[in-house]
Amino acid sequence: MRLSQMLLVTLREDPAEAEIPSHKLLLRAGYMRRIASGVYAYLPLLWRVLQKIARIVREEMDATGAQECLLPQLQPAELWQESGRWDTYTKAEGIMFALHDRQGRDLGLGPTHEEVITAIARDMIRSYRQLPLHLYQMQTKFRDEIRPRFGLMRGREFIMKDGYSFHGDEASLKQTYLEMHRAYSNIFRRCGLDFRAVEADSGAIGGSGSQEFMVLADAGEDEILYTEDGQYAANVEKAVSVPPDALPSPFTTYELRPTPGTDTIEKLCQFLQCSPTQVVKNLLYQVVYDTGMTVLVLVSLRGDQEVNGVKLQNQLTRLAAAYGGNTVLSLTVPDAEAQAKWASQPLPLGYLAPDLADTYIQSVPHLVPQFLRLVDRTVVDLQNFVTGSNQPDYHMVGANWGQQVSMPQRVVDVRKARPGDRAFHDPSQCLQTARGIEVGHIFQLGTKYSQALGATYTNEQGEEIPLVMGCYGLGVSRLAQSAVEQSYDKDGIIWPVAIAPYQAIVTIPNLKDPDQIQAAEQLYTALNQAGIETLLDDRDERPGVKFKDADLLGIPFRIVPGRSLKQGKVEVGQRATHRVEEIPLDQVVMTLQQLIAVATE
Ligand code: ATP
Ligand code: MG
């Protein structure tokens, strides 16, 4: 491709809309244009990058025996009503774009395809002989994200590869899941990314597990906790760890102590001269289920620890059935306005005890008149602890479970693991922290969707049972930008060779020099003929402008027929290292072939 014929508009200044380096660079280098919030046009250079990623994804997926297909983006509401996700996706989370057709039927634009694929499996899979089966597709997904940002990182329209596998049993699912782990690792390695697979939250579905593939980068929205020995890595949403040991309590006998003005753990510990590890703190939440029922939740947790909102939400979803529901619509800390709607008297906030009386809750329709009490594991073994007394300005000290306060029944893990905590598998290992961009998520779904939609098969014993499912997502457009986020310098993008839009660029410094033009044209033709995707910068621009643009675009290898042309040589420069060598004209193709082979092996 000749730059003189290309739509190439580069910007010297950072666009105001972009916050992180990869977003700025892709805009500045003319790879994409923003059309609306979270909606981007992929211009020709970016499209080539996306196609290269797609090719690698296809090769690795096909090698596992998965088959490519293309599912509709326009999806009928009925399917989503069958799975029970229509209301959550269009109303509660509101992530799905919903619309009506001219007949007044409801449709959604596909944010994901579990429903569609399960309906196909329901119609077409009858027997164990058809299993296992794995279908995948690559296409544009639509999600009305609350906060679209960082360009392709969180778009409202983006390209995803999603795959769905069907199995007769868990063992078969596990095998495919492992193959996907391998395939994804190959994909990200081949794309030149520095990544890590981490244990991930599977939501309340549970399943037997899920893993996310994280590209390591400071701009990542996710926090990863991992150990140096490589044995443990998890998204903080999911991470577990051994909390620091609690210090022995200085209070040996029970007492109700005046503790004026100590409505925070910090003030309390300063006042009592004790460690937060000796305190049982009690936090109030308000959850609304899909049935419209509101439940007030009291969580008891050690004073030095924090609640992990994802773990708490999962616990509450698991308890939904007890309140006749399926899912959590909202989980909040009730503010004064919310409290006014249900509290029968002012709450002793800052001084709550685990046994705060249910009489604090008024009898109101759609409100459960008892607290749901959850105890985090961190407080179960505490002795002689400090906790609220349900009276403002007083705390209990030297309290014990079963004596001054009875222990609520539900013991759960809702604590947030932290960097520095000890690891379960080896307490000599401490958790370290890193930031990551989630580029892939593999998931053992189990029978959630097959049961909901009635997708069954007949096993060898002649019984009709639900299909066991897995699903595997990979953000193709997010991956492209992540590669930039991991690889750039002050001059611009440094594409990993395997996914660069072009591998080489021949720059003609001086268009008035016929020798330069001749050498450049010759190289341009020879390189392309040898299968090396090459650009020719034949624009009538100053050399400085051309070199700057080549750096900004991030093309891995640059060839310049310059001063040494008289000696039959040209400059071959590497974008990543800025190393330049003079190579005889007739060796340029071979040299580049070698460089590319080394970079993509
Ligand atoms: P996130 O937690 O980042 O919102 P998700 O868990 O909703 O992602 P999945 O449903 O697992 O994402 O989708 C599979 C993959 O699609 C993700 O791993 C990610 O790479 C990509 N992806 C998801 N949402 C977006 C988005 N809004 N823009 C670009 N890529 C996305
Ligand atoms: Mg995910």
Automatic annotation (TrEMBL):
GO terms for biological process: prolyl-tRNA aminoacylation. Pfam families: HGTP_anticodon, tRNA-synt_2b, tRNA_edit. Its EC number is 6.1.1.15. GO terms for molecular function: aminoacyl-tRNA deacylase activity; ATP binding; proline-tRNA ligase activity. PROSITE patterns: AA_TRNA_LIGASE_II. It is found in: Cytoplasm. It is an enzyme of class 6 (ligase). It catalyses: tRNA(Pro) + L-proline + ATP = L-prolyl-tRNA(Pro) + AMP + diphosphate. The keyword 4Fe-4S does not apply. Residues 33-496 form the Aminoacyl-transfer RNA synthetases class-II family profile domain. SUPFAM superfamilies: Class II aaRS ABD-related, Class II aaRS and biotin synthetases, YbaK/ProRS associated domain. HAMAP family: Pro_tRNA_synth_type1. Homodimer. Catalyzes the attachment of proline to tRNA(Pro) in a two-step reaction: proline is first activated by ATP to form Pro-AMP and then transferred to the acceptor end of tRNA(Pro). As ProRS can inadvertently accommodate and process non-cognate amino acids such as alanine and cysteine, to avoid such errors it has two additional distinct editing activities against alanine. One activity is designated as 'pretransfer' editing and involves the tRNA(Pro)-independent hydrolysis of activated Ala-AMP. PANTHER family: MITOCHONDRIAL RIBOSOME PROTEIN L39/PROLYL-TRNA LIGASE FAMILY MEMBER, PROLINE--TRNA LIGASE. Belongs to the class-II aminoacyl-tRNA synthetase family. ProS type 1 subfamily. Consists of three domains: the N-terminal catalytic domain, the editing domain and the C-terminal anticodon-binding domain. This is Proline--tRNA ligase.
